[in-house]
Design brief:
heterodimer, A: alpha+beta, 5-stranded mixed sheet, 5 helices, B: alpha/beta, 5-stranded parallel sheet
Chain lengths: 240, 120
């Protein structure tokens, strides 16, 4: 019942937010007449925050759906190399903008593994996006290898790092982590919590290592043949 | 002559922004907030394309759909279903309706344009 309520509330909020966004976009796009610079600046604030709110509501919904085992995973044999390369293609422009080196290291002979490719792509995209966001100079490296029946993926940055005492909080929902005074934003929101749920539902583990001021590495494992999956309904049904 | 698009939705704000967008693209737009109004408009105004919201109060989307498709005059008109329900397309509810296409709410203006261009 709770989830039905959430689902209805989510769709209702989504429709309303889309209308707010449309109203702003029509005025900002000068389709309803000319606007001055000042008006434009304030509408930009409104637009930016409607987008943030939309993203937040999407994430709350996804998190809740994952937590209650409602999301059906599309479990198939996939090649992690392909996923990593795809994430590199989509996130490289962000790294280029900040003049960061982007390195991908893939071990030879990586076996195929059974996982939901779009969800794992989302995890790697989120972690990589975060890494780019918190790195002002240096590099981002995504590496994938294979050990003891599991795929090992790591995303390393040379960013501002996370204080040791804050590391365990990184994957909790809505934890506010002081990422250092240089950090432009200090909230990780829900993305890492969602990533943790996705990896754990696949029977894998996710952890973070960091040296404050020097950088962060986030590592996760994925069993090649997952067993004992943590959420319900994981067997080959299409993602809805 | 301008192509005419009918939008059927009981949410007046949606009608307003969709009308604005489509008129801006050079289409003529007529709107209906209820099924009865829609069926009446189709007889009078002969639209070239229809957007129909699946979830309406009163005569619901599927009911309106059935009437549109059983009517000689309206059954040839391309019909796009509007829905916020991402699972409806999988659940078979929409398959049973065999609409010409589906537009998921909320949608970007480009997606709306794409659907229109596909049929007009």
């Amino acid at each position: 019942m709770k989830s039905d309520f959430l689902s209805i509330a989510y769709h209702e909020m989504g429709t309303k937010l889309a209308l707010i966004r449309e109203g702003i976009a029509i005025v900002l796009g000068k389709m309803a007449g000319p606007i001055n610079k000042k008006q434009q600046n304030f509408l930009n604030i409104a637009e930016r925050n409607v987008d943030k709110l939309t993203k937040l509501i999407n994430n709350v919904y996804t998190f809740q759906e994952l937590a209650s085992g409602k999301i059906k995973f599309d479990m198939r044999e996939n090649d992690i190399s392909e996923i990593v390369k795809e994430v590199q293609r989509t996130t490289a422009p962000l790294a280029e903008k900040k003049e960061l080196d982007f390195v991908v290291r893939l071990d030879d002979g990586l076996p195929g593994a059974v996982f939901d490719s779009s969800l794992i792509a989302r995890v790697i995209t989120n972690i990589t996006g975060n890494a780019i966001k918190f790195t002002e100079k240096g590099s981002i490296e995504i590496a994938a290898g294979h050990k003891n029946g599991s795929i090992h993926v790591s995303i390393q940055d040379t960013g501002c790092g996370v204080r040791k005492e804050a590391l365990p909080l990184l994957f909790r929902e809505f934890e506010n982590i002081g990422k250092g005074s240089a950090a432009k934003t200090s909230t990780t929101g829900l993305e890492l919590a969602i990533s943790r749920k996705i990896i754990e539902a696949h029977g894998g583990k996710i952890l973070a290592e960091s040296e404050f001021g020097k950088g962060t590495t986030i590592k996760f494992t994925l069993p090649v043949e997952p067993r004992g999956l943590k959420s319900a309904g994981l067997h080959g049904s299409p993602v809805s | 002559m301008k192509k005419k698009i009918l939008i059927i939705d009981d949410e007046p704000d949606i009608l307003k922004v969709m009308t604005f967008r489509l008129e801006n693209l050079g289409y003529e737009v007529i709107t209906a907030a209820t099924g009865i109004e829609a069926l009446d408009l189709i007889q009078k105004a002969a639209p070239d394309m229809i957007f129909l919201d699946l979830h309406m109060t009163g005569m619901d989307g599927p009911e309106i759909y059935k009437r549109l498709k059983s009517n000689e005059r309206s059954k040839q008109i391309p019909l796009i279903l509007l829905t916020a329900d991402i699972t409806a397309s999988n659940s078979g509810r929409m398959n049973r309706l065999t609409a010409d296409d589906v537009l998921l709410k909320p949608f970007e203006p480009e997606e709306l344009l794409k659907k229109v261009r596909k049929f007009l």
